[in-house]
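Dear U.,

Please find below the material for section 3 of the report. The protein was modelled together with adenosine-5'-triphosphate; I have listed the sequence and SMILES used, followed by the predicted complex structure.
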Amino acid sequence: MKAPRRVSGFGSRESGFGVSGTVASPIPNPQSLIPDGIGIRGKPVIDVTNLRKKFGDNEALKGISFAVRPGEVYGLLGPNGAGKSTTIGILCGLVKPDAGEARLNGIDIAQRPVDARRVLGVVPQEVALYTEFSARDNLKFFGRLYGLSGADLDARIDRVLERVSLSDRAKEPIEGYSGGMLRRLNIAAGLVHDPKVVLMDEPTVGLDPQTRASILDLVRTIASGGAAVVYTTHYLDEAERLCDRLGIIDHGAILVEGTLQQLREAAGAREIIALRGDFKTDAVTRELQQHPEYELLKASDAELLLTVQRADQHLAGILAIAGSLGSVREVAIRQPSLESLFIKMTGRELRE
Ligand SMILES: Nc1ncnc2c1ncn2[C@@H]1O[C@H](COP(=O)(O)OP(=O)(O)OP(=O)(O)O)[C@@H](O)[C@H]1O
Ligand SMILES: [Mg+2]
């Protein structure tokens, strides 16, 4: 069989990014899926130490370390070009690190790639499937790559098709699939062999809210079954809802890591005030900095971002300053969340 061909125009580097692409539609029923850490157990099966990688002069990874235990979903949350896919690439042995070590189930990937990959299921950022084959035949191909065959493989394919809700369309060529169906099949292809370690690189980019929600449920189910999952995303709401632990990654470094609760505590219970309009950046910055109760996260001619303890008490004062040194067209107050920590750590909003 020839190598899997990429389905073009879907899940490419560009899709889902850029000014309009980073804002996801809200997921329905946005309650947390995290079951209070129950079920996370044993030693890490993913263990990454001080990974470094340069592409030419571009330092894509500047020393990445993290570990993930069975039953745990570890999120790598970061914007475009942060180093998420490079990290995933090293973990599946496709990208060679300049330094550092990545172990799967205790086995060093660089030294014993074939053995290390035995436990691995990968859902790549770019969809890689045979367009002229059916879903079932695609899954057969991937199952055989992992050494499965016969009735065992057929049973696993039935199960995984059910999980991604494609059972009733499994026999037709996938040429006629929608983007969301291709994404779901791409996920199934990484799961058909029930891997202990699952790497998912932005699996929900470009999908509608319902499909995103069902994929998040699926990821949780995989973890409940004992797999260790690395899940990369640039959607804050997904990270908050799904991940037992998170690393915020930017410019090739994990800036902060912890459970959602730890990260929220690090952010402090401060509300965010966002102003858009026309500002004289230097003057307005100088004036706002006279007030220690305002924490200025970002100031540009078009936008001001601040955090305060109580937005209701400080909004009028901030508006007076901003209004006297420019014009305010839009005001938004956002409740404390991972977002304030993200902005604090990276100096930018994820939705930029
Ligand atoms: N094969 C490559 N050749 C050259 N540069 C690369 C290559 N792969 C990644 N890079 C660079 O390394 C940096 C990290 O890229 P990476 O793809 O890991 O980011 P990412 O976090 O996955 O971003 P995105 O959210 O856009 O998928 C970027 O500056 C990127 O341009
Ligand atoms: Mg990527």
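For the text of the report, you could mention the following: The two ends are 42 Å apart (CA to CA).

Regards,
Y.
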